[in-house]
Amino acid sequence: MARPKKSLLSLLAVLFLAGCASRAAAAIQPMALTEVKAPAGTAPAAPAGWTRVFADDFPGTAGKAPSSANWFHDLGTGFGDGAVQQATNSTKNAYLDGSGHLVLKAFRTSNGTWQSARLESTRDDFKAPAGGELKMTASIRLPSAANALGYWPAFAALGAPNRTGGSWPSTGEIDMMEAINGWPGASQALHDAAGSTGHYLVSCAGDCRSGYHTFSAIVNRTKTSAEYLQFLIDGKVIQTITEAKVGVAAWQKAIDHGFYFVLDLTLGGSYPDGECNCTTPTSATTSGGSMSLGYVAVYEKGGNSTPTAKATAAGHMTGYEGMCLANQNSLNVAGNPIALRSCASLAGEQWSFYSDGTLRVQGGCLDDVKGTTSSGAWLDWYPCNGTGDQVWTHKSNGEFVNPRTGLCLADPLGNTSARIVIETCNDDATQRWAI
After folding, report:
1. Which domains does the chain have, with CATH numbers?
2. What is the mean pLDDT of the chain?
């Protein structure tokens, strides 16, 4: 997530909220807060005239991972923000608390490195319809670590074209919540090709670190010649950004398409470092700080992006020598390999064939890695995005054919330890599948 540029007013906000940002690091540390145990968050029902098209209240057993139908993990580093933590898929870093909350937790490992979590929504079709509106919102409690230098929690929506070769920031990023260094406020911003920004740190209705607060954005396209974006905190409009101010071309590239969510608890990077004039996290930064979410929800007015495709078959997908098609290690991460494995009761082997021609497992789709037309190209797990790389036709002889390429899903050369590919169709046993 990138940070908004400062203005004189934003600097005054920083002075009001946290004291002068140029003070020594120790001087800007907030007092530790007593955590408040809120009741399980429940996404509000849709107001009159609106449709709720997505909601996750994070139900489930304490210690379990969030729903793989709704979320997948980004792994490693290098997300363009200069952060130092390793994003993992461990339930030590992202887990349900058993009371209706999703917790993202950061901690320092025994070798001094940091681990945390970054999640993306599987869906990327949250869109304001022409003539209508889109509201995206989440209930979040910010980290309240005793020494929070370097903590950078975020809730953002990124443009769906990012997943199909689009270029940031022209594809749009709507930051509904970013907070840094344990300060009690949050910033919100729009990123686009025109260099739009947002507002700097603003207080919630009370301290953002104490209890749960709502962070929202409304895209209003009721009048398509005069569209605008509103940022809200605890239901109060904080800032409005208009299409006229951004410019029509940059606005349309950034706004007039679907979005997906990113939930992130980052350590270090450009935003927290820039505001403390130091390098974070420091040796004194508290390990174990967490960001907690009560719900994430999406509402649309004048449209309904709820997927209509239905599963027509489900279960194990068996192929050569009766072995099962598997999302390797049941890891729902973009680009994860697809392979053959001995059949077992694993999440990565539970496939569904949908009415839109997609083959889905763990909330994602079987995908042609590079969108090539070459026989022998690898297949992988990727968020479903409606492209031809993810569409399949099941033939009467058992072949699954990708209409875009005319190639078949195959176990290459009958090698059951190899990665699954697409190959020239030849009605061979290595290309016959049953689900």
Report:
1. 38-301 (2.60.120.200), 311-431 (2.80.10.50)
2. 89
